[in-house]
Amino acid sequence: MLSIQSFTFNPFGENTYVLYDETQQAVIVDPGCYDKKEFETLYSFITDHQLIPQQIINTHAHIDHVLGVAAVKAKYNIPFLLHRDDEPLLRAVKTYASNYGFAQFDEPSIDAYLEIGEEVAFGNTRLEVRFVPGHAPGHVAFIDHPSHTVIGGDVLFRQSIGRTDLPGGDMNTLLMSIRKQLFTLPDDYTVYAGHMEPTTIGFEKKHNPFLK
């Protein structure tokens, strides 16, 4: 069964997730750690729980979600996966990172592309990859059906949605992604978002003001 540990990193309040199961194999989603203390927090959890990281998988490539990718990748010698449509966003981060105070940003290389219709596999876990653009052109969500879990990035928040005023964003596309790819899931699926606390599909269907 899937276990989830969340960490809130960097000044943007970004949620990084470690997903693991009874085999101790794990994947790291959207490592946004930047300073020494944040890296130590992530690494200590992995060590304390005797986890074996298999890969880094990102929902998208905005700066707050990729700050720690290169360092985590190097520490565990694991591949980094991203949807190909978000590669331009990743490459752009180095051009503006210092403007946000991240002068030490290290751009990671992409080892493989996340493909829609395929699964991310580790241990006994199989995550479905769904394409949910709108906040970012190559945004994806990871779904574990046995645990009714969605790792949703910056698409759907508790009573809110991801912003669409950044390069590659589009409001109509985002709303369509939510309705067709997330709201088609059962109401009891829990959404772990890239910011703020978790929510459920059923709660957002009833209470999200952007999706009435």
UniProtKB/TrEMBL annotation:
Alphabetized GO MF terms: hydrolase activity; metal ion binding
Domain of life: Bacteria
Species of provenance: Dyadobacter jejuensis
Leader sequence residues: none
Cofactor(s) of this protein: Zn(2+)
InterPro entries in UniProt: MBL_Glyoxalase_II (IPR051453), Metallo-B-lactamas (IPR001279), RibonucZ/Hydroxyglut_hydro (IPR036866)
Name assigned to this protein: Glyoxylase-like metal-dependent hydrolase (Beta-lactamase superfamily II)
PANTHER family assigned: HYDROXYACYLGLUTATHIONE HYDROLASE GLOC
Residue ranges constituting the Metallo-beta-lactamase domain according to the UniProt record: 13-195
Keywords: Hydrolase, Metal-binding, Zinc
